[in-house]
């Protein structure tokens, strides 16, 4: 079961890598709900994801996430301690923090794909992340972190990209065919010209000229 889960996750990761140009270390943008769930499941977030995806990751969060956890008080104190160790990504709410979900939403929308993995247990935020192509979602399930399968928006984007590639290759084939035809015409002209040149170069047979001279001299002597 574990191997199957890892295989699925790694093939999804390949999609993000090749189609959406994600690169290591992958940035995992976590909110308080994710930190809380990981804490409850006794999961070391960074190590767990690194092993699970067989890659290097950098966990990060925002000031808005920390501010929200601060507001929630004791109940989320542990999650705040976890999130505080993460790298802070700058958001546009420095002077007036907004709810964590709104903040993370703005980050993934601003950077579109190829930037962040979203790590959350918040269903509303997950739903939003899934409407943007190329935003991988991580969540805690039982005692594991799971990389969600690519969303419909992501799949549609992949289909559109492959269609585009296909039509490009068809166009390339057509232009290649035209180029070949052009080359044949040029090549054909060249051979015709070369053939003519050769004929001209041959000219009159020099041996026949020699013979004629001999016969003339013979006649004179006789
Ligand atoms: Zn913010």
From TrEMBL:
Q: Principal localization?
A: nucleus
Location in the cell reads: Nucleus, Nucleolus
Where are the annotated segments for Disordered? 186-222
Tell me what organism the protein belongs to.
Ciona intestinalis
Pfam families, per database record: Fcf1, UTP23_sensor
Q: What is an example of a GO molecular function annotated in this UniProt entry?
A: small ribosomal subunit rRNA binding
Q: Name one GO biological process term.
A: rRNA processing
According to its UniProt entry, the function of this protein is described as: Involved in rRNA-processing and ribosome biogenesis.
What protein does this entry describe? rRNA-processing protein UTP23 homolog
Q: Where is the UTP23 sensor motif region domain?
A: 196-214
Locate the compositionally biased regions of type Basic residues: 193-202, 209-222
Q: Which InterPro entries match?
A: Fcf1/UTP23 (IPR006984), PIN-like_dom_sf (IPR029060), UTP23_sensor (IPR057776)
Q: Which GO terms describe its cellular component?
A: nucleolus; small-subunit processome
Q: Which SUPFAM superfamilies match?
A: PIN domain-like
- The answer to whether the entry has keyword Coiled coil is no
Q: What does the UniProt keyword field contain?
A: Nucleus, Ribosome biogenesis, rRNA processing
Please report which protein family the annotation says this sequence is part of.
Answer: Belongs to the UTP23/FCF1 family. UTP23 subfamily.
């Amino acid at each position: 079961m574990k191997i199957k889960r890892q295989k699925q996750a790694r093939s999804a990761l390949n999609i993000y890598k090749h189609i959406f140009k994600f690169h290591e270390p992958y940035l995992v943008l976590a909110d308080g709900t994710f930190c809380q769930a990981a804490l409850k499941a006794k999961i070391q977030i960074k190590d767990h994801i690194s092993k699970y995806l067989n890659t290097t990751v950098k966990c990060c969060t925002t000031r808005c996430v920390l501010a929200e956890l601060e507001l929630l008080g004791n109940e989320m104190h542990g999650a705040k301690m976890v999130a505080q160790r993460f790298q802070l990504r700058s958001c546009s709410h420095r002077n007036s923090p907004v709810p964590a979900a709104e903040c993370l939403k703005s980050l993934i929308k601003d950077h579109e794909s190829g930037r962040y993995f979203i790590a959350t247990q918040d269903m509303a935020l997950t739903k939003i992340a899934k409407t943007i192509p190329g935003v991988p979602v991580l969540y805690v399930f039982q005692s594991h972190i799971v990389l969600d399968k690519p969303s419909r928006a992501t799949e549609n984007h992949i289909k559109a990209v492959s269609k585009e590639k296909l039509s490009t290759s068809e166009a390339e084939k057509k232009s290649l065919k035209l180029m070949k035809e052009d080359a044949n015409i040029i090549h054909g002209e060249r051979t015709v010209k070369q053939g003519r040149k050769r004929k001209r170069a041959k000219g009159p047979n020099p041996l026949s000229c020699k013979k004629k001279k001999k016969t003339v001299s013979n006649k004179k002597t006789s």
